Each structure stands twice: as structure tokens, then as C-alpha cells.
């Protein structure tokens, strides 16, 4: 990496900012006409999750149980109450100097029930106000249409995205978003971490395994992914027709695996694991199913039902740029028996003995970000956007009332250097960078407040107790300096 800060360079107009998701920050789950989403039904499960499969287990009984109004057990219902604090929070983002703010729109806030004929005016009003607040400070919104919050109505009626009916309903929702929010939004994403269906189908697609006695569950996941691919392509096309200058991208989980050893078997196993991450982004970028994905599905004895015009729809709805989340790396091996596994961003990998681990087991690796940027740009040849990157830590308020978080500043510095290397040494076209959880919010994997990412501390604990007061951490001023200098002042 660069050691001379004078060599750190970012393009003029580079989009520095932060990112949140509606389901992790908004709260206000049952007011102003909002319908219930899968996130409103996920219970509090804190701590270091060593088995991610168990973490995302969910049954029809769980769904029925969640119809109660116990908000303590369902923390996503309260979030950090961004719904009522958005003006204060966006003002703080502006004080840091944000050029862009990545946010998501909750489908169930726009349509209380996805099959409603008309959208919920209160929901539209809320998001228009948020977007206007961003524009007041010259912050570009980067809007995700679907971020892990499938409406419960679709789960109950169509078994989530397994039902083809979801395609038309999503496109209706997307068009409403483009029509009402298009004047304020240049940058859009269709589905968050679109590759995640086969890792956690409940949050990605609203698929509950016990509802699929008539079809192999894995086949149902492939079918649901196909429906999301069609919906994404149709949304991209609709958005471009309404706003030709809009930039509409895809978003993937950039999992990164190194071979555990130099054994050929470990290298091959790692290559196959990485392929499984790219398969659906390949569709969104190139407009067709890759041959290896077709082989994967047929070799398992599964089929995916295509309707007559599906292949043409995919070709007409390719994305303008590729965005991704990046937090860590892991290793992989052909045989993981006897090897220590390390939990991560919705997956388990083999622990890398050369990397440090957070309290939650995530292994930080700034070099892996440069590696990932080069890998993605070589593969897709489209502009890239890092829309999630950050460090979850257990922050504490000191006796002087401040939050000192040198670990977050160090993490940010290392990753900014990695981005600069990718741009200046490797020729990567990088549009921007949004730190995940720029304000403390509920963790997706554990649904706890204790795992904090933000530059802004929110005085709430895991059970919703606290004042909700927003407090700047030391990293707030540090990121402000990074942005003001366009990434060149890191000390």
C-alpha cells in the first residue's frame, strides 16, 4: 500500500458518504399505514454467532408468533426511530460532508399490502421529505428498492418470491418509486445483496422451508432468484424509460475467500465457492444466465421455470454499475473437517491465521478490499461502488461524555488506502464509498445495538432503553477530514 500520503488520490466528484437500511433504522413499524415485513418478525438474537445457518432459521410458527406486539423481542420494529429523527440525522451527515447517502425504501411503507391498487400517501410523503432533506444539503441519495424486507403479505399468499406474482407487484412498486422520487434520485439499486438467497432465503426472498413440502427447498430458492432477476431487469428498464439519465445498479455481497493451502484441491474448492457468489450478478451485468449456473441447476436435478419472454427481459434490463458490500475475508478448503471456522457476513469460512478478528469473529483485511476491487472490475468492466464497508464494535461512552473509537479510525484509514491503490495502481473505476451504519443501527445478523458501526452514537441498548440521543464519536471528525480532503488526509 501507499506509505506517502501525497500519493493518495481520488477522482474529482468521488462520492463519499454513508449507508443505512430502512429495516435497521426507521422503526415506526405500525404507523402511517406501513404493512408488516419479515424484519418485523425476527427476534432478538445477540452475540457471536458461530453457526450462521442456525441464526437464519425461521419457521411458519415463528411467523405466526410474531403477530404479537412485543416490540422488545422484535427490535427491528423500533430501530433507532429514524422515522422521527431523519432531519437531525441527515443534518449530522451533512456536517460530516457527505456527498451521498445510501438508504432503502420499505415496500410495505409504499404499499401497505403489495396488492393494493393505490400507494400509501403517508409513505410517499415520508420518503419525499427525507429526499428533500438530503437535497437541502446537496447530498445525493442512493436508493435501494429492496433491502431484506419482504412484505409478510407476500409470504402468506405466494410463499414469498417463489410466486411469480411477486414480479408484477414489485415492478408496480418500483414504478411508483421512480415516478414520485425520481426528481430527487439519480442513483438506484434494485435488490440488496442479490446473491444472498441461497444463504438466507427468509430475509432475501421470504421463503420459509416448512412451506415447501411439494418442491425441494433448494429448487424453490433457484426459482425465487429467477423471479428476482426478472423483476430487477424490468425495474431497470422502467427506471431508464422514466429517467434516461438515472444510474441503476445491482448490489452483491463481496465475500472473498483465499485458498487455505496451496493444495490444488483447496484452490479448486475456493474457485467454486467464489463462482457461487457471482452467478446472479453475472445475469444482471451480462443479461443472461451463465453456463455454469445452468449446469449447477441441472446437475442437481432441478428445473427453473422460464416464461416466454424471460430471456429477452434479462437482456433488456442490464445494470449500469456494480455495487457491493465488503467487510472481511476468510479462507476455504476442499475439506474443512478439523479446521477452525470463523463467522462472518451471513456465512462461515475457515479462519485465517494471519488476520485479526473482531469480537464477533469477523476477520478484517484491507488488502482484501483491493483484491476484491480488481477482481470485480476485471470481471464486469463496469464502474464499481462500495456501498457497505465498516467495523462493528462495542463502543462505550467515557466519563468525559465522549466515545473514543481509534479502532474505527484505523480500519477506515486502511481501507481508504486500499481503495486508492486500486484506483491509482490497478486502474479500477470506483464511483464512491458509503460506510455502513454511518449512524448506529440494529445489526442485521444479530439484531442488537451493541454491535455498533456508526460515526454517530445512538443512546439505545439492545432492549430499546435509552434516550435515543445522538452523540458524535471521535471517528465523526476523522471521517469529516477524510471527506474534506477527498481521501488524502488520513492522520
UniProtKB/TrEMBL annotation:
It comes from the Bacteria. InterPro entries: GH, GH_1_N_CS, Glyco_hydro_1, Glyco_hydro_1_AS. The active site is at residue 388. GO terms for cellular component: cytosol. GO terms for molecular function: beta-glucosidase activity. The keyword Hydrolase applies. The keyword Hydrolase applies. One of its GO terms (biological process) is carbohydrate catabolic process. Keywords: Glycosidase, Hydrolase. Transmembrane segments: none annotated. Belongs to the glycosyl hydrolase 1 family. This is 6-phospho-beta-glucosidase. It comes from Dielma fastidiosa.
Amino acid at each position: 500500500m501507499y506509505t506517502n500520503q501525497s500519493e493518495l488520490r481520488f477522482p474529482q466528484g468521488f462520492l463519499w458518504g454513508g449507508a443505512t437500511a430502512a429495516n435497521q433504522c426507521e422503526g415506526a413499524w405500525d404507523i402511517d399505514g406501513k404493512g408488516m415485513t419479515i424484519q418485523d418478525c425476527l427476534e432478538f438474537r445477540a452475540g457471536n454467532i458461530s453457526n450462521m445457518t442456525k441464526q437464519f432459521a425461521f419457521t411458519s410458527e415463528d411467523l405466526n408468533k410474531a403477530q404479537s406486539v412485543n416490540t422488545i423481542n422484535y427490535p427491528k420494529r423500533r430501530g433507532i426511530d429514524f422515522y422521527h429523527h431523519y432531519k437531525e440525522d441527515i443534518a449530522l451527515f451533512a456536517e460530516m460532508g457527505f456527498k451521498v447517502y445510501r438508504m432503502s425504501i420499505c415496500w410495505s411503507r409504499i404499499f401497505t399490502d403489495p396488492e393494493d391498487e393505490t400507494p400509501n400517501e403517508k409513505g410517499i410523503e415520508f420518503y419525499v421529505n427525507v429526499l428533500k432533506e438530503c437535497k437541502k444539503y446537496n447530498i445525493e441519495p442512493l436508493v435501494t428498492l429492496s433491502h431484506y424486507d419482504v412484505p409478510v403479505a407476500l409470504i402468506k399468499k405466494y410463499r414469498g418470491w417463489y410466486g411469480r406474482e411477486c414480479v408484477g407487484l414489485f415492478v408496480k412498486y418500483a414504478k411508483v418509486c421512480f415516478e414520485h422520487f425520481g426528481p430527487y434520485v439519480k442513483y438506484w439499486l434494485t435488490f440488496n445483496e442479490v446473491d444472498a438467497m441461497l444463504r438466507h432465503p427468509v430475509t432475501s426472498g421470504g421463503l420459509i422451508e416448512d412451506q415447501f413440502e411439494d418442491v425441494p427447498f433448494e429448487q424453490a430458492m433457484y426459482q425465487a432468484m429467477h423471479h428476482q432477476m426478472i423483476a430487477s431487469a424490468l425495474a431497470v428498464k422502467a427506471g431508464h424509460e422514466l429517467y434516461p439519465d438515472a444510474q441503476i445498479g445491482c448490489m452483491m455481497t463481496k465475500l472473498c475467500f483465499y485458498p487455505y493451502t496451496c493444495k490444488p484441491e483447496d484452490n479448486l474448492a475456493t474457485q467454486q465457492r467464489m463462482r457461487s457468489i457471482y452467478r446472479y450478478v453475472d445475469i444482471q451485468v451480462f443479461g443472461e444466465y451463465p453456463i455454469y449456473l445452468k449446469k449447477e441447476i441441472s446437475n442437481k436435478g432441478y428445473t427453473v421455470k422460464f416464461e416466454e419472454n424471460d430471456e429477452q427481459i434479462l437482456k433488456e434490463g442490464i445494470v449500469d454499475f456494480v455495487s457491493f458490500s465488503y467487510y472481511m475475508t476468510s479462507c476455504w478448503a476442499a475439506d474443512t473437517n478439523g479446521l477452525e471456522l470463523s463467522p462472518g457476513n451471513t456465512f462461515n469460512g475457515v479462519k485465517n491465521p494471519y488476520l485479526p478478528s473482531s469480537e464477533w469473529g469477523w476477520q478484517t483485511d484491507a488488502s482484501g478490499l483491493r483484491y476484491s476491487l480488481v477482481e470485480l472490475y476485471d470481471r464486469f468492466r463496469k464502474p464499481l461502488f462500495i456501498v457497505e464497508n465498516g467495523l462493528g464494535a462495542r463502543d462505550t461512552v467515557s466519563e468525559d461524555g465522549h466515545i473514543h473509537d481509534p479502532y474505527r479510525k484505523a480500519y477506515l484509514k486502511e481501507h481508504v488506502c486500499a481503495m486508492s491503490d486500486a484506483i491509482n495502481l490497478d486502474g479500477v473505476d470506483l464511483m464512491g464509498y458509503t460506510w455502513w451504519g454511518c449512524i448506529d443501527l440494529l445489526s442485521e445478523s444479530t439484531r442488537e445495538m451493541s454491535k455498533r458501526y456508526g460515526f454517530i452514537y445512538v443512546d439505545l441498548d439492545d432492549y430499546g432503553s435509552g434516550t435515543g440521543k445522538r452523540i458524535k464519536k471521535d471517528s465523526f471528525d476523522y471521517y469529516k477530514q477524510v471527506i474534506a480532503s477527498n481521501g488524502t488526509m488520513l492522520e
